[in-house]
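Worked example

This section walks through a single chain of length 1266. The input is the sequence exactly as stored; nothing has been trimmed or padded.
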Amino acid sequence: MINKDNFKALLRHLKFKEKGDIFNKDFEESGVYLKVDFKKEKLDYPELVGLKINERQTCNFASAENVVVFECVYQLLNKGYKPKHIELEPKWKLGHGASGGRADILVKNQKDKPLLIIECKTYGKEFNKAWKDTQEDGGQLFSYAQQISETDFLCLYASEFDEKNSQILTEQRIISHKDNEKILEQGDELKSFKKASNVKKRFDVWKETYQLEYTETGIFESNIRKYEIGKSNYTLDIDTRPVRNEDKDGKYHRFRTILRQHNIARKETAFEVLVNLFLAKIVDEEENKTNLEFYWKGVAYDNYYDFIDRLQKLYQIGMRKFLKDEVMYISNDQIDSAFWTVKNKRNATKKQIQKYFRDLKFFSNNAFSLINVHNERLFNRNTKVLVELVQMWQGLRLKTKEQNQFLGDMFEYFLDNSIKQSEGQFFTPMPITKFIVASLPLEDKIQKASEPLRTIDYACGSGHFLTEYAHQIKPLVEKYKETEVSKYYENIIGIEKEDRLAKIAKVSAYMYGQDQINILEKDALSSIEEVKNESFDILVANPPFAVEGFLLNLDDKQKQLYKLIETTELNSNTNNIQCFFIERAKQIMKPSGVVGVIVPSSILSNSDATHIGTREIILKYFDIVSIVELGSGTFGKTGTNTVVLYLKRKSQKPEPAEHYANRVEDYFEGIKEDDKSTSEYQDLYLIKKYCEHTEIPFEEYKKLFGITADTMANLDELFKNEMFADYKNDFENSTEIINYKKKKVYKDKTTEEKELELSKRLIKYIYKVEKNKLFYFMLAFENKQKVLIVKSPSNNKEQKKFLGYEWSGAKGSEGIKYTGGNNLNDIITPLFNPTNVNDKSKINYLIQQNFLGAKPNDLTEFEKHKDLITYVNVTDILDFSRKDFNKEFSLSPKKNITIDTKWELVKLESIMTIIRGASPRPISDFVTSDKNSVNWIKIGDVEAGSKYITKTEEKITKEGALKSREVKSGDFILSNSMSFGRPYILKINGCVHDGWLILTDFNKELKKDYLYEILSSDTTQQQFTENAGGGVVENLNIDRVKPVKIPLPPKTVQVQIVKECEIIDKASEKAQQSIDKTKADIEKEFKEILSKANKIFRLNNSEIFEVSIGKRVVAKEIEDTEIGIPVYSANVFEPFGFINKELLKDFDKPTVLWGIDGDWIVNYIEKENPFYPTDHCGVLRVKGKEIHPRYLTFVLDKAGQEVRFSRNHRASIDRIKGLSIKAPSFAIQKQFTEKVEKLEKKISEAKLIIESATEKKQKVMDKYLK
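Given that input, the structure is written out below as tokens.
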């Protein structure tokens, strides 16, 4: 908005002469002047030479609109309009079917007749509102037009000064107010401006006859002559401008609004049309710079048939040029030329045939059909919508030399909301795209390579990664190579199966001047001629996740190229496409090739054969450089949990995996340390490292090599090791062995033969497990560098800071919102610096360095992110203690939790049965109101702080119970996700879903109440946390709970522990009862005082109340430490950060804060406590002695509850001012607040008792267990 603060900067930009507080502008050719007096806040116009001012309301600084009027008059005078033809604030009387009022500017023609009415608004919100009103009922403009019906044009105008870039931004909507006779001739029923007798009828003419037509240029442009409004010829330089960041705000909302207004329901089709329009526009910008064809020129100069013909021509050129695809297009001239042999006497036939051609061409579906078109009516309807879509973009310039993140953001949001993600596609936000590319060692690669790097995105979608990569390598190529950067672009390949996205990718590349990028519309998992094995230096991608039946698109020969096919079937309907993309990376990457790929977090931990096989491929063929966890807010509404894998293809030949596989076989056949054939490989140390890692004595472990059934006694010491004892126990209790012992062939053996056979089988069992473990340990140990693990914060607020953005679904402002400002270059995130990819304080720099095998010595810059960043050995992200070694990657390497106890430690699996719940699906089919059905136990049935589950809200049918898992009173259940590990004891029978783990069939030496206390203890909860870590979503499963250890003291000790814990529980219950009673007492006191209220106060009374809201705070203003002034937003109880500047200067009064957005909450801030309110926080202060601030806090809270303020009914300042409150005398209010303060102190004391309960119980545990 142009206001007093930036008005001077605008005037300097317009070359006004400055002398003290006076700014003058002389128009030398006409002898006209303009003057601004800042001291008197006065705007002077050239009245002495004819400019007419009817009233002087626009001649001061009272309104921001006055400055817009002044700037507009400047533009008119600068254009050459004479002052005598300009009139400000023309005023009309009521009557004549209009509402009267004042227009801002009336411009007359050289015959002194009305030519143009201009209504000025401030840029942005006010302009948009006024334009919306105009389109709905004519607004102010048509009211003025009714007064001067001979006016040819109406204009809504706004301007803004962009001080940063020193340019004036304008918005214009120019409406032709003169009749077009050619259009009126098309039907007698068409209405005309000439016959409109009132405002409504005048608006109806514009709406019904001229279809709400308008243009956005035609008054001030350099190729427009003065007094000649409108134009038929548009040029790239004059009539378009580069896309700005602020243009993205509202574009999707506008797109959606247009579709909704015209009942276009098929969003996917509409998006395809939009992509085709972009293609046409890009061609137009390239081919027709001096006479643009992607422009609706208005009813005075254009018609629907020529308009569609131009779009079809541009589309044909684009498809041929960019996608090498021919599209049928026959121009009107081609149709005419086909009749060159027809003589004049057959003109009627020629005319009729031409009509047939025209009907066939226009009254059928084409690349711009938003609806099915098969007649003239539908053609007109479709074209009307197209005109509005074109007008959204025609004044913008899409093709730029430099990257503009607006286009990427816009594509991402339009794609995400317009194309159903049935193919597992999640389009990558621009900040993540930049971060991933910026983390690759591009500078090192380019500097050392003798040839242009071969780069691929094998699931390129709309091409974000490709254009970003091209953008980042350009300065590096220019710095280190004499080769043209276009040669590098030629070696960039994008593969995209979806034709719409392939088209977008090519258009994107062309927009950025990266024409040479190759886009292949193919299935990346199939054999492609341009994609050879071991041929790519760089892979960066976000491949699709979970696409059902994707293998069916490959023939059997292609399927068999994948090792992972052995984990499923040739004709499997598996949806694990992400796994096959990892193996595809293994195939196509050169030795030392680098990879940055987004995958679902499940790839780290899922235990099915395909996912295990995928992790095996990673460990065999790649060095793991970094794993970056992306939180659930990364991809907007999808909430998908993902990680970025940064990998480097192993460079050695033969493959290290082949070498270590052979060595493991050699070792298990038998090892002799003095044997040259053993020692020459010099990797015996790896076995020692494995033993060290798993805490197995090396001297005992090596006895395993070459062991036979006859020498099994040599392993007696090894079987004392916990892991090997587990092997033996599992073997003996396996179904296979139990069944074998029942067979006659076993029973017929002698005791010695039985032991020998079982020993052979045990050796085979152990060898299978240990060969596997040792092999992958060797590979993991030889990883070239430690893995840099980056974890995303789980807290939503912290996650936004981590990413540097958040998602908005707010109407009119949908899409991604950067934390540092509107521009991606302003983004503030620890991940990367958008203006410096080598910023040593950012995480991407650490990843770059880790690719090169370097870890910065000084990590001081990352101290504030120490909880997010960890360097670990690959061996530490694998759990080699597991019997079922499935190569799960843990992002939280296990810590050794020492349990200090004098009693035996037992695993949970040894003293109970642990099973998982099950869910009949869909559950809605089995939920019933029948009281005789089965209890359906959900997390919502748990009362806060409760030990027992005594009832359920829902029941399921007996049929549903058969598909679920039944539980009985006395069983325990543990939540296995979210607030995992919390135990509950059942007091009812029922069924549980798969979000629960069931603990049942307890050892007789275990008291249930003791089990509850020990499971709830810090030591056990720490074990749950450690075991649950690993993926993005922490959760428990049976295998993660089974190995958890607890002390098992004698029953007498268990009873004593329970007894003392119950005393603590009773104290907590009593404290909670005290809190509940005290809150009821406060409520009672409040109702009593309210009954004595004898005055009513409105909060809009400025003599009693000061009501205000805060100011927006951007992320870069927030301090990293808790130093400064606390900042309150919608949550007025907890500051969301601290800031080192003041908004409010005076804190000598108490303050009442309320949250404008979100849940309704009110808080009281005592005086002399500085704070900074944001624009989501309301501030209420009291003047005088009629209302006590503490009382006001209570009464405002109640008033807000009564009017139901909430997220959907926000507590805006206007709504707050509209409230009335009742109050008794000030003395009674004061007595009330003093009572409440005492009662609140009592509540605080009770809360301390409850909060200390856990610590007290831990002391009881320590007393009896240590």
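What to look for: Residues 1051-1091 form the longest helix (41 residues).
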